[in-house]
Design goal:
Helix content: 40-55%
Distance between the termini: 53 Å
Shape: globular
Strand content: 5-15%
CATH architecture of the largest domain: Orthogonal Bundle
């Protein structure tokens, strides 16, 4: 097994450094689902500017946040779900320096404290229209003191901190990304980077992804979480593809059911982080693939998913499992030594097959969507190795991988806006 052009000396130019920066930004640790974690982070940050625990909390957010918090269990809340529970957990956790890892500071002894905040604090939630895929504003008060924190265009991108009438911090919406140029990404540049990168430059972050994401997948495969999609798939598995798919789904089973284990996210999503990594790790273990080849496969899988999702936005009615699942199969092909053109055709066919899957929030059925996305990737691989693919102009498929990704970005970022509103209306109706 030879992955791409491994062994080439990396050229540490601006693009190379940018890829490293993108990975460092996008592959962050999170405890619990990322949207509830973001609410908890903002809540903790705002409450730090009050002299005592808040008496009331007013939360404004766009519908995508409501959608992705509504049905997921918040750790250490005795099974509670929703924005109010996430905000209460942040008040008790306090340590906003942990950002999306804030829920990790909680323990079993904090459950009663969180429930007390929920019962004694007036917490209201208003859905607001915003052109941004992510908008969250939390205002809270205690006596005559008030505090406000606003997060926009990213789960931890704070754009406003206000205490009373005094603005303590204000920034441009896109400041968080001002030094990162995602324009360096295309299918070929990602393939070349994965082929030639110095593993020492990425080993630490990939080692954490391997350890954390496999730990939650193994927990899920044992059963007892959510709808047990992964455990069900594993019990009836007949091939390595089945087992790989089962482990990825199992990680989502556990995470959506409030498992208290960390996940390394991708594109702001723990489910996507699990999906781009666990299949490759499981496959490499069964096939005894050397660590270096696994690392390079993970680079390709992670970056292909980031490339697709960055154009769509972190929250959309387009299911991110599709991008992640198809990218994971491309990463497995890379580990098996398939050439660039086969990987591209696999990506195109997988996207053509599964791009109709919609996101109706974070919940137990995310695991089944991960399974379907991976199966679309496997189908794309089986077609590509037989020199079969969908032609330019057939549906949303274009002449090459980059053009097809551009079409999917347009579909997921712009075309799904009305669909998104309808999904939220159905969920809240």
């Amino acid at each position: 097994m030879v992955a791409g052009r491994q062994g080439m000396m990396p050229v540490r130019d601006k693009s190379y450094k940018m890829f490293i920066a993108i990975l460092a930004k996008e592959l962050q640790v999170a405890y619990g689902c990322t949207e509830p974690a973001s609410v908890a982070y903002a809540s903790a940050l705002a409450s730090s500017h009050l002299p005592i625990r808040p008496e009331w909390i007013s939360i404004s957010c766009n519908s995508n946040i409501v959608k992705n918090v509504k049905s997921v269990v918040i750790p250490f809340t005795n099974g509670r779900r929703g924005i109010q529970a996430a905000a209460a957990a942040g008040i008790v956790a306090k340590d906003y320096s942990m950002k999306l890892g804030i829920l990790s500071v909680l323990g079993a002894g904090d459950t009663d404290k969180i429930l007390d905040v929920l019962s004694s604090t007036a917490i209201t939630v208003d859905v607001v229209e915003s052109p941004l895929s992510f908008f969250l504003d939390i205002v809270m008060g205690a006596g005559e003191e008030t505090a406000e924190v606003r997060i926009e265009n990213g789960h931890t991108n704070v754009t406003l901190i206000r205490k009373g009438s005094e603005v303590l911090y204000s920034s441009a919406i896109n400041e968080e990304e001002s030094d990162i140029d995602y324009g360096v990404m295309n299918a070929r540049s990602i393939y070349d980077f994965a082929s030639s990168a110095d593993i020492a430059d990425v080993k630490e972050i990939l080692d954490r992804q391997i350890a954390d994401n496999m730990a939650i997948a193994e927990t899920g495969i044992a059963g007892g979480y959510g709808a047990e999609v992964g455990a069900s798939l594993y019990s009836s598995s007949h091939s390595i593809e089945d087992r790989v798919t089962a482990f990825a789904a199992a990680g989502s089973d556990a995470r959506m059911a409030g498992c208290k284990l960390p996940v390394i996210i991708n594109s702001g999503s723990g489910n996507q982080g699990i999906t781009v990594s666990v299949p490759l790790i499981t496959y490499a273990k069964e096939k005894a693939i050397p660590d270096e080849i696994l690392y390079r496969g993970l680079l390709l899988s992670n970056l292909l998913a980031i490339y697709q999702r960055h154009g769509i936005g972190c929250l959309s009615a387009y299911c991110g499992a599709v991008n992640a699942g198809v990218s994971a199969v491309c990463g497995i092909e890379f580990m098996d030594g398939y050439p660039f053109d086969v990987i591209c055709h696999t990506l195109e066919a997988g996207l053509a097959t599964a791009s109709g899957i919609v996101c109706d929030g974070a919940k137990s059925s995310c695991a089944s969507k991960i399974a379907v996305a991976l199966k679309a990737g496997w189908l794309g691989r089986d077609m590509a190795v037989r020199n079969k693919w969908f032609e330019d102009g057939e549906g949303i498929v274009k002449a090459d991988a980059d053009s097809t990704i551009s079409a999917v970005v347009r579909l997921g970022g712009h075309g799904m806006k009305e669909v998104d509103r309808e999904i939220v209306s159905i969920m809240l109706g």
